[in-house]
Design brief:
By secondary structure, this protein is mainly alpha-helical. Helix content is 92%, strand content 0%. It has helices spanning 2-14, 22-119. The longest helix has 98 residues, at 22-119. The radius of gyration is 48 Å and the shape is rod-shaped.
């Protein structure tokens, strides 16, 4: 009996005998939902496309920044290495000059010793 009253309610709602059948209502709803799904899919595709574009920009920016950072680090390393090399060269030069000053007073004595050793053979 409940089913009969539901059918009567539907007929009363439409107010005429040309009311859509349940199958037509289902098809109509399917069409509406299909349109909504298609719209949602298009919107999702646009969101994904925008996200991909943003990701590409981020990757490009990150790549450029990492290249710039690598160049800066390389330049700094070269600069530091050159400064260290100059310092080491300065230290070596100072040590060599100190050795020359230390040896210089005895250089003539060393030459005389070598010459004397060679001539006595």
């Amino acid at each position: 009996m409940v089913e009969g009253s539901a059918g009567a309610d539907r007929a009363a709602e439409s107010g005429s005998s040309s009311a859509a059948t349940p199958l037509e209502l289902i098809r109509q709803k399917e069409g509406e939902l299909s349109g909504r799904v298609l719209g949602a899919k298009r919107e999702a595709d646009e969101i994904v496309a925008d996200a991909r574009k943003q990701a590409a920009v981020i990757i490009e920016t990150a790549t450029e920044e990492s290249i710039a950072d690598a160049r800066e680090r390389t330049r700094k390393a070269i600069e530091d290495s050159e400064a260290r090399a100059k310092m080491m060269l300065g230290e070596a030069t100072s040590e060599a000059e100190a050795l020359v000053r230390e040896i210089e007073p005895r250089l003539q004595e060393a030459v005389d010793f070598v010459v004397g050793s060679v001539t006595t053979i």
